[in-house]
Amino acid sequence: MSAIETDLLKPELVFFDFEATDRIDFFTKLGEKLKEGGYVKDSWLDAILEREKNYPTGLECTSISVALPHVDPQHLNKPYIAIIKPKNPIEFDGMADTGLVNAQLIVNLGLLAHEEGQVAVLQAFLGIFIDDAASADIMAQTTPQGMVDTVIKYCAE
C-alpha cells in the first residue's frame, strides 16, 4: 500500500508547459490556479514561499531534477497533489543545502496529514523519482490523464 493518496491525483491538477520566470512567479501562477479550483486559502502563497525559503525542496535525482514543495494544512481548503511540468526548468534551492536545482518536474503537495504523513508521501515520491525508468515514463507523458495514470501505476509498485 502506497503512502500516496492516489485519489488526490486528478487531471485538473496536472499542468504541462507551465510558464514561469522564476520560483516566485511559479508559485503565484500556481496559487491562482489552485484558488480557482477551491483548493487553497488566500494565505497559501505567502505560506509556501516562506516554507520553501526555510525548507528547500529541490532534489537532483540521477535522471530527473524535481521539487516537492508543500505547505501546512491550515492554508488549504481541501487536499490535493498538483503535478507541474514547466515549459522551462524552474530554479529551486536544493534540499539540505545541496545547491540550486533546475526542476524539470514539480509535485506540489497540499496534504491535510500531519508532518509524519507528509514525510511518508515525500518518501514515496522520492522512491519513484530515484527509479530512472519510472522518471523517464513520467516525463514522457503528454496528457493530464496519462500523467495521473502513470504516477498511480508507480505508486502501486
Give your account of this protein's structure.
This is PTS sugar transporter subunit IIA. Keywords: Sugar transport, Transport. This protein has 157 residues and is of the alpha/beta class. The chain has a single domain, classed as Mannitol-specific EII, Chain A. It is 38% helix and 24% strand. The strands form two sheets. Strands 1-4-7-3-2 form a five-stranded mixed β-sheet, with helices on one face. Strands 5-6 form a two-stranded antiparallel ribbon. It is globular, with a radius of gyration of 14 Å.
Order of the strands making up the biggest sheet: 1-4-7-3-2
> Structural class given helices, strands, pairing?
alpha/beta
Low-confidence stretches: none
CATH topology: Mannitol-specific EII, Chain A
The number of strands is 7
Helix content: 25-40%
- Proportion in β-strands: 15-25%
How many discrete domains? 1
CATH superfamily: Mannitol-specific EII, Chain A
Based on CA atoms alone, the radius of gyration comes out at: 14 Å
How is the quaternary structure best described? single chain
**Which H/E pattern describes the elements?**
EHHEEEEEEHHH
Any idea what the CATH architecture is?
A: 3-Layer(aba) Sandwich
Protein name: PTS sugar transporter subunit IIA
InterPro entries: PTrfase/Anion_transptr, PTS_EIIA_type-2_dom, PTS_SugarTrans_NitroReg
Domain PTS EIIA type-2: 7-154
Keywords: Sugar transport, Transport
